[in-house]
Amino acid sequence: xxxxxxxxxxxxxxxxxxxxxxxxxxxSLRCLDIKSNGDVExxxxxxxxxxxxxxxxxxxxxxxxxxxxxxxxTVSVYAQNTWLHAGANAQTxxxxxxxxxxxxxxxxxxxxxxxxxxxxxLTALNPLNGTAPLNWNALHVPPLATSGNYSIFYxxxxxxxxxxxxxxxxxxxxxIDICNSQINFRIEQTDASGCVSVSSVDGDxxxxxxxPEIPVLDSVSVNPATQNAILGWQPSASEDTEGYIIYIFxxxxxxxxxxxxxxxxxxxxxxxxxxANSESYCIAAIDSCATTSPLTPGHxxxxxxxxxxxxxxxVNLSWTAYxxxxxxxxxxxxxxxxxxxxxxxxxxxxxxxxxDVLNLEDDSTYCFYVTAxxxxxxxxxxxxxxxxxxxxxxPSYVYIRHASVETDGSVYLKWVNDRNVYxxxxxxxxxxxxxxxxxxxxxxxxxxxxxxxxxxATASANLHSVYYRVAVIDSCSNEAMYSDTVRTIYLSGEPxxxxxxxxxxxxxxxxxTGAQEYRLYRMIDNVPDAAPxxxxxxxxxxxxxxxxSFFLSYGLFTYRLEGIEAAGNxxxxxxxxxxxRIEIQQLxxxxxANAFSPTGYNKTFCPFGVYIDHTTYSFxxxxxxxxxxxxxxxxxxxxxxxNDGAPAPVGVYHYILQMTLPxxxxxxxxxxxxxxx
Length: 677
Description:
CATH superfamily of the largest domain: Immunoglobulins
Distance between the termini: 186 Å
Number of strands: 57
CATH architecture of the largest domain: Sandwich
């Protein structure tokens, strides 16, 4: 790398030829640091001196590698490892340096020269394209084994040096992100010994024409307080970023505002209509030269709409899908009731954009918003939408006053309603069980009348008890509410052989305060008693009626039960209800003798019986020749053993008895009687 002046080489060879002891090694020259004023500081590694023969270090300098070299300094301090070459003018003129060590025992000896190092001269070009190509020379060719990579620094603003990067070669291309300013550069290289070589400084007025890095738009959401669109992004990686331009899509991307500061990372559009429609936004970074980055990909807000479905007692939500995320994991639906705290209503799939909110309370205000959760962890919320849930008004009551069984087994019903509330109508329903199924038997449209009646001719309430309820049909044609359920009284019974009638029934159901009592009414042969024959407390569902004393009747007993409502009905009503009517027929019982004696104890002959239908009675007696001896339709008229006023002869006579039994069955009995005197 260097050539030695011939006289120096000759001198060194002469010394080597005349001396027999070893000279010290030259210092290991490692660094050349060019100061701002052009001075050069040399740094070296001190050679070993085990025998203490050190005399001095000699430093040589030249403006060219080939020389000639001039000794510019003698350093007589062994431990010294730096020296400043004042006036070197190294900012403009290259400098080449090497060193030798002088020993003094027993005579002066000179070491071989150290490596020759060249000051690093930097050339900074300006191609006027927003870059700064940098080139410089190496300290030594080949590079010293102890030298590290090159570090590049730029000065901006004046007096402030900043790192621009590193290089393994002697060239570097710096991208300018500063607008139309003086920028200076320098190169540094650190040696393993710890010293640093610093190049000359070079620079120019550079202008940034490269757009700043595109910022990353994280999300576009809707501010829950203002309902305005709000944007959030990550700063541009370009240090020269001065701010960001906000764009909205109106058919084309239109700038609407600029925010300043590289670390400004949010923006709220005060003119937003994100509560009425979905809005699309993007941004661009702008640098100090007013150069803008390309636009970010657009993001579109979620627009949430809600409608009240009064007929289904629900709120129906629908929203636009969020656009801009790399992917969406899910949507989260939030709810607030009557101004209360927000809570998660549900989490739905990333393809769901509708949701029905059910089981809401009437006359309550519900607010909703939806949040999209992206696959990379960002979120975006929709606008808030609030709805007053006002379902169809329902009457305060619908009440069946009574269900009373008619004599033909039909049921007469009477119900009342709150006439101050409009509904479509009322559906009267019937069932044989309190749990249904229910059958529609009548429909009556709403009128202002407070009372409705209906006679159910198909109830067959004389065969079983029947349940009724009234369904209120609201303005949505829904069965919105039901009346109380009522149950008719079903009375049943049967005759017993001991001349009693056994009765059974169930309590009436439907009165709010229950029944006060039940009254049993009876007719004998269709002739009613003047008053109830018995009174029962609720829960008494059995009775034995002793009818033996009514043996002279035809044996037809008709019963009916009346329920009396207990006091305290909250609507102020006081009603009664009747059961079905039942008939119990005690069968006739006949007793006919086989002989009689007009002159004896048993002086007349006629049948004796109980519960006989006298109206259909016929009794005829014949002699053995078939001649009629006696004929009557009076059950109480008997044969005295005469014929046309004269005593009939002793002997056997025949009779025919005819009558009608219950159920219109014709009854005939033939027999004989012996007349004794």
